[in-house]
Amino acid sequence: MEIKLSKYCDFCFGVKRASGLIEEALEGAKGPFYSLGPFIHNPRVVEKFSQKGLKTISSLRDIKGGTLVIRSHGISPNVLKKAKALGLKLLDVTCPNVKKSQEIVSFLARQNYKIIIVGDKTHPEVKSLIGTCGASRAFVVNRSETLKKLKLKGARVGVIAQTTQSKIKYLKILTKLLEKDFSEIKIYNTICEDTLSRQKEASLIARDVEMMLILGGKMSANSRRLTQISRASGAPTYHIESASQIKPEWLKRKASVGVAGGASTPKWIVTEAVKKIIQERGDSSKCSVKLNKKI
Ligand code: SF4
Question: What whole-number distance in Å separates Cα of residue 34 and Cα of residue 101?
Fold first, then answer.
């Protein structure tokens, strides 16, 4: 069996940076440390960090003091204000790409643009963008059909995408949007490079193998998108969080399997999955692991 491994099988730049900063703080500074919601959408990594002292909370009301970690997805200014009012210390690990998106919506809001955010309105990054530009001027669009409800006549419109959005979907929505009546439009390409490379790579591998495994948290938007892209490229695809979820029957009579990971999936989780595939085959001499080189 040939196992084709994506070149992007580790944390993305933003998550690597965030986890490094948090680890440093957990080792050096006095706790307690809190994250409002999981600091990344990967339960296994969140569990490891919780053992080191990073507690996940669901509301600021749950805490009395300590350090609040601002996650790589960013935070809404309102929540930030509340945290400051509570006297919490802050450790800001917002990804620079998300910060850039926040600056864009803040600029557009100051210039009185209507702002269209292409993304998932329940995702923390999108919530932080809505909070930054103000809910009254932000419209979150996840499907081109939603655009029908939008009245843009005479408006100046600014459009950005959630950083982990699929490029194909963004282009599809933009194409529909351009049919509408508005006075001016500014379109920003805010999909991050890492996301684009992962999507391109997963799609290329999926075209070449009999089955794909996407490693990533079930709540991870970018892992779910990789799964959709892989399926759309033609390979039966399974989205799993860990090697233990690999079912032996998936691998039966397969000559090639592709493996890719989401932005919040560390290398060790991917390595475990590759080892499990080899173990299931029962004879490691019949398996070869290759890094995809076509990209
Ligand atoms: S996926 Fe991109 S935007 Fe999101 S944390 Fe990673 S590098 Fe930053």
Answer: 24
